[in-house]
Design goal:
mainly alpha, 2 domains, two-stranded antiparallel sheet, 3 helices, rod-shaped, binds zinc ion, coiled coil, B box-type domain-containing protein
């Protein structure tokens, strides 16, 4: 009579006792003592998975707390600052240019007025002026006023892309 010999499977851990329980995950057989150890080993691995999970969750919380902490944000901040500096520089340059033009213009008018001042002073001293001269001086004064005001209409091209 052919009776199937009972093949004794040994515990995969101690290799001594019979492996009475087989783990469905790794297909290894364990004795009743080592099956507990195997389970504890799995528990430790589960703890590692849990720790990794918690770490990621903490990272998300930190990112939420500091939404601006991103390399691109720093680049945008830097670009903003550099652009503001450039605009300030361009505005300063434009102001200096205008002041120089106005200053030059005013100096010219002042020089021409000084000439007229001497002329008027001489005429008054000698008391020999007539209507034509009075008219001429008045015209000169009017012209100097026009010249002075001309500096107010200096053309400034806002689209100048020199900078
Ligand atoms: Zn297993
Ligand atoms: Zn064992």
């Amino acid at each position: 009579m052919a009776t199937a010999r009972k093949i004794k499977i040994l515990c995969s851990t101690c290799q001594k006792a019979a492996g009475v329980l087989t783990c469905r995950g790794c297909n290894n057989a364990f004795c009743s003592r080592d099956v507990i150890k195997h389970r504890q080993q799995l528990n430790r691995q589960m703890d590692e998975v849990g720790a990794s999970h918690d770490q990621l969750q903490q990272l998300i919380v930190e990112h939420e707390a500091q939404p601006k902490c991103h390399p691109l944000m720093e680049r945008i901040d830097k670009w903003e600052q550099e652009s503001i500096t450039k605009i300030h520089q361009a505005a300063d340059d434009a102001r200096k240019q205008i002041l120089t033009i106005i200053g030059t213009h005013r100096a010219q008018v002042t020089d021409n007025l000084a000439v007229l001042t001497q002329e008027l002073s001489r005429a008054r001293d000698e008391d020999d002026y007539v209507e034509t001269e009075l008219k001429e001086w008045m015209e000169k004064l009017d012209q100097l006023k026009i010249d002075l005001n001309a500096a107010q209409t200096v053309y400034f091209d806002q689209n100048d892309s020199k900078t």
